[in-house]
Amino acid sequence: SQQGEEDPQALSIQEGENATMNCSYKTSINNLQWYRQNSGRGLVHLILIRSNEREKHSGRLRVTLDTSKKSSSLLITASRAADTASYFCATDGVETSGSRLTFGEGTQLTVNP
Amino acid sequence: DGGITQSPKYLFRKEGQNVTLSCEQNLNHDAMYWYRQDPGQGLRLIYYSQIVNDFQKGDIAEGYSVSREKKESFPLTVTSAQKNPTAFYLCASSMQARGNQPQHFGDGTRLSIL
């Protein structure tokens, strides 16, 4: 079963606006990762946040993690047309001893020029 | 450049046929993974390998088989027992099979039924 569920399923914004995507999960985790996938390509790792961290930044990306609500958000600031892609969260569940990731179903982001 | 190479990019399978998808990495990673992605959906884990000569079933292993005879290679065979094989298949690797490490992905193989 899918551990992570992204919300919204699809998001369309104008260039320059901020984009926020949310991920909820069901069981306790060690870490949470965000990935990006361009159409027809493989996934690219964006950022990892550990369960004892609340916020992390990387360039225009800001990730938050609330383990009490079992949720994470990915914020992309000052979006560009090149940010158009699907974004997935992936969790490293305590019950699997960290040996594997479980991916959500993704948010399709479209940034209009 | 280091990375993961998947081949072929497109593959067609006839009824009753087994097909093998290739995945090679030159990142010196111990762990390798195979995922299946259906349209508009996330990734589901088929098999993963933490080290050479070892592999474990993921969530949807039925109808698939793998081998890990070399560190660099983790081929996936889609057998005739897999009745709905049409999907996008992604191979990934990480330094170790641990959730605090990023996974590196190939660009996928798209499998269709003839």
Give the helix/strand layout:
The complex is a heterodimer of chains A (113) and B (114).
Chain A: E1 5-7, E2 10-14, E3 19-24, E4 29-37, E5 43-50, E6 55-58, E7 61-66, E8 71-76, E9 85-93, E10 102-103, E11 107-112
Parallel strand pairs in A: 2-11
Antiparallel strand pairs in A: 1-3, 3-8, 4-5, 4-9, 6-7, 7-8, 9-10, 9-11
Chain B: E1 4-7, E2 10-13, E3 19-25, E4 31-37, E5 43-51, E6 54-57, E7 64-66, E8 76-78, E9 87-94, E10 104-105, E11 109-113
Parallel strand pairs in B: 2-11
Antiparallel strand pairs in B: 1-3, 3-8, 4-5, 4-9, 5-6, 7-8, 9-10, 9-11
What descriptive keywords fit this protein?
heterodimer; A: 113 residues; mainly beta; five-stranded antiparallel β-sheet; B: 114 residues; seven-stranded mixed β-sheet; four-stranded antiparallel β-sheet
Order of helices and strands of chain B: EEEEEEEEEEE
Shape of chain A: globular
The strand count of chain A comes to 11
Average pLDDT value of chain B? 94
β-sheet strand percentage of chain B = over 45%
Output the structural class of chain A. Answer: mainly beta
Multimeric state: heterodimer
What is the helical fraction of chain B, as a range of percent? under 10%
Number of helices of chain A: 0
Beta fraction of chain A:
over 45%
Order of helices and strands of chain A: EEEEEEEEEEE
Query: Mind summarizing the main beta sheet of chain A?
Result: 6 strands, mixed
Low-pLDDT segments of chain A: none
Q: How large, in whole angstroms, is the Cα Rg of chain A?
A: 13 Å
How is the main sheet of chain B built? 7 strands, mixed
